[in-house]
Amino acid sequence: MFYLDRAATTPVRREVLEAMWPYLTGVFGNPSSTHGVGDAAARALADARATVAAVLGCRPGEVVFTTGGTEGANTAVKGIALAAPRGRHVVTSAIEHEAVLESCRYLERHHGFTLTVVPVDRDGVVHPDALAAVLRPDTTLVSIAHADNEVGTVQDVPALAAVARTVGARFHTDAVQSAPWLPIGLDRLGVDALSLSGHKLGAPKGTGVLALRGGVPIEPLLHGGGQERGRRSGTEDVAGAVAVATALALVAGERAAAAARATTTRDAVVAGVLAGVPGAVLTGSPTHRLPGHASFCFPAVPGVAPAVTGETVLLELEQRDVVSSSGSACAAGSTEASHVLTALGLREDVARTALRLTFDAGLRDEDVPVVVRSVAEAVGAVRALA
Ligand SMILES: Cc1ncc(COP(=O)(O)O)c(C=O)c1O
Q1: Is the pLDDT of residue 332 over 70?
Q2: 284 and 376 share a domain?
């Protein structure tokens, strides 16, 4: 089986499972307890925090452990906007994950904020000029993802964050999809907050990190015992923190080689599908895109082939042992055209034909023709039926 849906989730790595095991069993203490059992857990939590800080190039106190990308984005967007609003204006892009979009809409609905959504170009790129054009003296927060999950486009976050700074707005980036592939960090990207998810990195679902620059006030989502320096109450998930720290450290060590390898494979997959499927188009940027991320649409070719829906191609592909996703993976089950693809200027009927293949460096050169043939056969089969 070819698992080509790693942007959706990854299996837990053995090293990660082994690192977290003691904290699920023998060293089970509550880090807030004032006895030896609790101390051991507190030490593990501190070590995990230091590990994450080293990878992200920030201070341990700037690391908040979360349950994943959704919580990180909600905490950053709502928390920063509500803590010390310079004004009631927030900005995001047209291709954000729902975790960011819905957090912004919540601020609009319940707290009197105005939301401005910055458009993207046909490749899914947010241009700094487009951001500059919508900023206001009362803009409190800008949230733009480092890389898009549907089309893999990577943004120039340092340039966008620099634009936000000109009006004094805080900047959050959703680094869930870039974390496995690209060097990330608060200083490296010039941002105030960065969220990532453990389950995209080989750690379990329900783990994640929000890096939050020291001195940035935040209103927590969860109130209670004041854990995580008051930024997230609740007894800490020590094993989860150890897991995400271990996964992040492993990924950081492997990233450069894995990205180079997966870029080559991705380019071969893209070239193969574009050559092998009549009318196929690549979605997202051909150049500024994540390694291991290939996404396509299969619009109708007049007089030659009818349009297919991505969902039917997925089913055909699975019969050929290739597991993948449509463009609207995060709204699985939804028949609506993806807001990301329509923001790129694709018509809704074309957006419904999306297919996303995401893989890691383990996809071998000899696998590429097999995958490409499977895609061509699957699209051909669906087109023949239609
Ligand atoms: C870009 C992006 N942001 C946020 C999330 C949400 O992360 P989680 O599943 O950890 O809540 C995802 C998950 O697919 C994602 O791709």
Answers
A1: no
A2: yes
Residue 39, C-beta contacts closer than 8 angstroms, at least 6 positions apart? 29, 33
Do 267 and 363 belong together in one domain?
yes
Q: In the annotation, is 58 catalytic?
A: no
Q: Say whether both 207 and 80 belong to one domain.
A: yes
Residue range 142-161: average pLDDT?
98
pTM: 0.97
**Phi–psi pair at 296, nearest 5 degrees:** -140, 160
- Domain span at residue 153 reads 13-251
pLDDT at 327: 67
Residue 113 has pLDDT above 60, yes or no: yes
> For the chain, how many structural domains are there in total?
2
Residue 333: is its pLDDT beyond 80? no
Beta carbons of 309 and 335 less than 8 angstroms apart: no
DSSP 8-state assignment for residue 322 = E
d(CA 225, CA 162): 36
Record the tokens describing residue 147, joined without a space. Answer: 């890389």
Scanning the structure block, which residue is given the tokens 């009818």?
Answer: 306
Give 363 Cα–ligand 1 centroid separation in angstroms: 23
**Amino acid, single-letter form, for residue 73:** A
Residue 124: φ, ψ to 5° = 85, 20
Q: Which amino acid, residue 346?
A: L
Centre of ligand 1 to C-alpha 176, Å, is 6
Distances (CA, A) of 267 to 10, 270, 286: 22, 5, 9
pLDDT per position as a tens digit, 246-297 = 999 999 999 999 999 999 999 999 999 999 999 999 999 999 999 999 999 9
Q: What is the number of helices (H) and of strands (E) in the chain?
A: 12, 12
Residue 4 inside a domain? The answer is: no
Q: Which of 5, 70, 71 to mutate to test the pocket of ligand 1 (most atoms within 8 A of CB)?
A: 70
- Mean pLDDT of the 309-317 span: 93
Whole-angstrom distance, CA of residue 266 vs CA of residue 152: 11
Distance 366 CA to ligand 1 centre (A): 31
Contact (Cβ atoms closer than 8 angstroms) between residue 102 and residue 126: no
